[in-house]
Amino acid sequence: MFFDYWHFGGFVNKVAPTNMKYEIQTYDLTSRKIDIQTKKKHLKPIKKHKITPFIFSKWGLFHGVTKAQLSRGLTTTIFLQILLGNVFKFNTIISSKSSKIRLIRGGSKLYKDFSSSTSAGEISQGLSILYFESKGYPFCSHFDDFRRDHKVAKNGESPDFVFEKTPKDRILVEAKGSFVAPETASNLKAPLAKALSQLKSWGVKFSPPLKKSYAFAVLLRELEDPFNEESLLAVVDPEETEAPNAANVPPSYVRRVNYSNWLQLMGYNELATIILSDGEHSRAEHTFFAISIAGERYAIIPLIPVQSENTFDVRRQEATPVDIRYKIFPKLDRFIFVGMRLSVLKELSHLSTRGNLNNITSLETLDQFRDIENDDLINGSIFTDGSVIGEADIHTLDTVNSVRLKF
């Protein structure tokens, strides 16, 4: 993060997007599973299948992509660099000229082959998190962490995520993505077949079993591509049964990982470790700075790169709201932030100080994810788990207040 204030101010004001809504055609191809897995069978045409439009916002997509990247074992600083890079990259490559999601002209080849496939995969993973949020699965763990923590050996390629609605209702998801070159037919069968092979037999290795698994593919086309096909999202739901000697997964596991990862993004590394801890830990107080978003209080961390000699940590105990308003943002009109619903942090504090984090499954969540759409003040995305990401006018900090909580 080697921007000075002036350059980053321009970045926020010019690049941080309004909360534009997008639509993508969605196909449930579960009935075509055999065709997908059989080499000589053809999957197309798929237009005879029912099309369900999935509508999402640009900040919702950034939120999903960020959450998808959170369990890589990286430092908070690198996480923040990645997040800011995502805002720049995807705001650039996704067209703002069409409500049906499209890449900009030349977007399918804007990056080299490896970078292009990586970017497409990141968008697909982010959309998978958004999609299953909409289906009532707000909590997320990367599958390989889930597998390793429960001492299940790796046997071949594995899926991306475990999503949870309740401790007895968890699903596996493998997400694939690609950018389709103009005037060419998309290859939907290959990524779905690959995803199905990565899902096979994994869910039955755990108890309670992950009885549902989803192959998820997103194919994005360029703006003004004359080929008679839209960008699309496809889902396949194969069935599995439970196997003997399955690894037992504690009810609180996925939610602990979900909240720990987001708190790490916010820079509360000690607190992130406490959320995962089953044993005794030293008590600590943490300072949070809260602003009002959509009628509720959210503890936020501004993502502002500063020169090393001017580094200012809003989490330090002696920090004050005045410091946030005038020391971090002397020359910016808007800022990008991440945060967590304050009521969630208070409940985590309550559970932690009583040594009762296993009851994290009783923590109250929002009814559904929502977009923040107040272009003059705040744009962003709030997920069901209480996490928030967005950008805001500097004057939203005029009413910031500090809250200290024990963990």
N-to-C SSE string, H for helix and E for strand: HEHEHHHEHEEHEEEEHHEEHEHEEEE
Helix content: 25-40%
The unreliable regions are 1-11, 305-312
Distance between the termini: 31 Å
Question: How is the quaternary structure best described?
Answer: single chain
State Rg.
22 Å
Look at the helices and sheets and give the structural class.
alpha+beta
Please characterize this protein's 3D structure:
By secondary structure, this protein is of the alpha+beta class. It folds into 2 domains: about 20-250, no CATH class; about 255-405, no CATH class. About 30% of the residues lie in helices and about 25% in strands. It has helices spanning about 5-15, 35, 60-70, 75-95, 115-135, 145-150, 190-200, 255-265, 270-275, 320-330, 340-355, and strands at about 20-30, 50-55, 140, 160-165, 170-180, 205, 210-220, 230-235, 245-250, 285-295, 295-300, 335-340, 370-375, 380, 385-395, 400-405. The strands form 3 sheets. A 7-stranded mixed β-sheet has the order 2-1-8-7-5-4-3, sandwiched between helices. α3 packs across α5 and α8 (about 255-265) runs antiparallel to α9 (about 270-275). The longest helix has 22 residues, at about 115-135. The chain is globular, with a radius of gyration of 22 Å. It starts with a helix and ends with a strand. Mean pLDDT is about 85; it is low at about 1-10 and about 305-310.
